[in-house]
Structures are given as structure tokens and as C-alpha cells.
Specification:
The complex is a heterodimer of chains A (114) and B (115).
Chain A: E1 4-7, E2 10-13, E3 19-25, E4 31-37, E5 43-50, E6 53-57, E7 64-70, E8 73-78, E9 87-94, E10 104-105, E11 109-113
Parallel strand pairs in A: 2-11
Antiparallel strand pairs in A: 1-3, 3-8, 4-5, 4-9, 5-6, 7-8, 9-10, 9-11
Chain B: E1 3-6, E2 10-14, E3 19-21, E4 23-26, E5 33-38, E6 44-50, E7 56-58, E8 64-68, E9 73-78, E10 87-94, E11 103-105, E12 109-114
Parallel strand pairs in B: 2-12
Antiparallel strand pairs in B: 1-4, 3-9, 5-6, 5-10, 7-8, 8-9, 10-11, 10-12
The chains are: A mainly beta (114), B mainly beta (115).
Chain lengths: 114, 115
């Protein structure tokens, strides 16, 4: 019973290609996130959706476009991939409340751009 | 603005000895703080969280952390390290945007456990 799942786990592609990463959570949460972990293991938030509405959009190139078809899914589409996009991308979810709450993370998608 | 600083990028201990991973935070209001662990090629798992209740927080696998406001610290400890504790540890503070919290991660501390 995977709480937050991502597909694919590994993604190897050429520069200039377009690719998507999918995320699904079965925890009934109303908020989902995308984080990027670089080669130095530093994690930074990219996007957050609450009830399918974009809440957080950090300074991410507009080649990255999140899409949330419903509360349980948050996909990440990346256009015109660049070498610098190589990283591990983590999806997470939480239940919005009156204060900060724990986020549950998926296993990550390792993207390698050649 | 919130931020966290993990004071050690790498900590090495022998199995059975205590673990101390240090974290200082900066926050303009009473923070929520977390420790997450990431085992090699795995996702992140919550170890423990502080949300303005008891200052000494107990987590999974024998870990605990103490919130010290006067020192703006939230150090992670464990009395006796196990080989399976070898992993990357992240100290995290929760920022706030609307009604959605975003996690702000420290740089991470790699814990090595020697037999």
C-alpha cells in the first residue's frame, strides 16, 4: 500500500526532449508538492497545489508545468529539457490545516538529461 | 523568513555510540520543525516533529530532538547508533504560504556508522 507513488522511478532522456513525471497519493490529502533534489542533495520546493489550485510557485523556469487533474494526482511536465534539469524529483502530500503539518514523500524520480 | 542550518555536513560514529546531529533555525515566528531521514536511493521519512508542544520530542527508531528557543537549536540525538541508521538527515522548518506549508530544508548531514 504505497501512500505516495511516482512514475517512473528513473528517467533518462536527451536534451531538448519533453517528459512527464506522474505522482499519485492515496492518503486523502488535499495538498501536493513537487521538490527538486540536486546533486548535492539539497532539497527545494518547486510547486504546491491545494485542492487542484496552484498555491506555491517558486522561481522555477516556465519549462516546468505542473498539472493537477484531481486532488490525488499532481503531474510534472518538463519541456525542452536541459542538462541542469538532471536531479531527483520528489512528490509529497499533506493535509492542509490550521498550521504546518507533516508531508509524506514519494520515492523520487531520478531524471538524467544527456 | 525561515531558514535552517545544519552545522555538520558529515558525522561519523561507531556502532553503539551516541549520535548528535546539530541544527540551528531562524524564524520570524514560532516555528514548526522536523527531522527527515533519507536512506540511499529512497524517499524521505519523517523521524519526528516539533509543533510548539513539548520541547523534547521523541521520534521513531530511538531518535529524539530538543527544541531550545534561547539557542535557536533543534539538535537530533540517539543514545546508541545502529548500522541501519546510516543515512542522510535533514533538519526542516516549515514556512507558511496561505494555508499551505512549504518545507525549507537544511543542507543535510550524512551519518556514517562504523562497525
Amino acid at each position: 500500500d504505497t501512500a505516495v507513488s511516482q512514475t517512473p522511478k528513473y528517467l533518462v532522456t536527451q536534451m531538448g526532449n519533453d517528459k512527464s513525471i506522474k505522482c499519485e497519493q492515496n492518503l486523502g490529502h488535499d495538498t501536493m508538492y513537487w521538490y527538486k533534489q540536486d546533486s548535492k542533495k539539497f532539497l527545494k520546493i518547486m510547486f504546491s497545489y491545494n485542492n487542484k489550485e496552484l498555491i506555491i510557485n517558486e522561481t522555477v523556469p516556465n519549462r516546468f508545468s505542473p498539472k493537477s487533474p484531481d486532488k490525488a494526482h499532481l503531474n510534472l511536465h518538463i519541456n525542452s529539457l536541459e542538462l541542469g534539469d538532471s536531479a531527483v524529483y520528489f512528490c509529497a502530500s499533506s493535509q492542509a490545516g490550521t498550521g504546518p503539518t507533516e508531508q509524506f514523500f514519494g520515492p523520487g524520480t531520478r531524471l538524467t538529461v544527456l | 523568513a525561515q531558514s535552517v542550518t545544519q552545522l555538520d555536513s558529515h558525522v561519523s560514529v561507531s556502532e553503539g555510540t551516541p549520535v548528535l546531529l546539530r541544527c540551528n533555525y531562524s524564524s520570524s515566528y514560532s516555528p514548526s520543525l522536523f527531522w527527515y531521514v533519507q536512506h540511499p536511493n529512497k524517499g524521505l521519512q519523517l523521524l519526528l516533529k516539533y509543533t510548539s508542544a513539548a520541547t523534547l520530542v521523541k521520534g521513531i527508531n530511538g531518535f529524539e530532538a530538543e527544541f531550545k528557543k534561547s539557542e535557536t537549536s533543534f539538535h537530533l540525538t540517539k543514545p546508541s547508533a545502529h548500522m541501519s541508521d546510516a543515512a542522510e538527515y535533514f533538519c526542516v522548518v516549515s514556512g507558511w504560504s496561505g494555508n499551505t506549508g512549504k518545507l525549507i530544508f537544511g543542507q543535510g548531514t550524512t551519518l556514517q556508522v562504523k562497525p
